[in-house]
Amino acid sequence: MDLGIRGKRALVCASSKGLGRGCAEALAEAGVDLVMNARGSEALEATAQALRDRFQVSVTTVAADIVAEEGRARVLEAAGDVDILVTNAGGPPPGMWSDWTREDFLKALDGNMLTPIALMTALMPKMIDKGWGRVVNITSQSVKAPIAVLGLSNAARTGLTGYVAGTSRQVAPYGVIVNNLLPGIHDTDRAVALDGGVVKAEGITLDEARARRAAAIPARRYGTAEEFGKTCAFLCSQHAGFIVGQNILLDGGATLATI
């Protein structure tokens, strides 16, 4: 399918690895020029060059912490006038409710709620002026059904979801379409970290931890960054203009919900 976005320009955050890379790759395959961001320059540059070589698109890189005000300013300066924004940031660490302090919550809110909001606030006005734009926020399946040990993420990402619910309907009349993608467990570094916590806590092997988690997913496997990216690219396409303010699960059926 031709997504109709060849020649558009996208900012994809935290895109050197994992789900962010999957999104950047799918957009590049559709002919979109990229501004890519990540904290580590080595992996970022390697990924960017791989996408340039494979898809012959323009790729600008900015090694910066998107959550930090200074880093975000540098990313926005490099991004300039973009048509597509994909927000993404690593989730807070797991833990227990009794362990989290006010500072822990403020850090989670900065990373997983306030940073995406700041990026949308900065970039959507020009999309509105052009009469076309796409925003996809990578959140989590936990906004549909909470994950107890990820309370910091549950709270911050649900706040972003509420913001998008209203804002998406305010900007849709101007051709700017905002939606959220809600990943379940995917085969990324985040999965390795979460499974590693189970290994440490229960004294089992990593393979055993992965097998146990996969067995609880109706699809009986982890998702892939490639399939996640393809879904993101569709939401950024010309064909997604009637999908407004939605929260789309990619979790292999793991979330027990009718709607």
From TrEMBL:
GO function terms (MF aspect): 3-oxoacyl-[acyl-carrier-protein] reductase (NADPH) activity
Keywords: Oxidoreductase
Pfam families in UniProt: adh_short_C2 (PF13561)
Domain of life: Bacteria
Listed InterPro entries: NAD(P)-bd_dom_sf, SDR, SDR_fam
Enzyme Commission numbers on file: 1.1.1.100
Top enzyme class: oxidoreductase
Family label: Belongs to the short-chain dehydrogenases/reductases (SDR) family.
PANTHER family with a match to the protein in the record: 3-OXOACYL-(ACYL-CARRIER-PROTEIN) REDUCTASE, NADPH-DEPENDENT REDUCTASE BACG
Protein name from the UniProt record: 3-oxoacyl-[acyl-carrier-protein] reductase FabG
Organism: Maliponia aquimaris
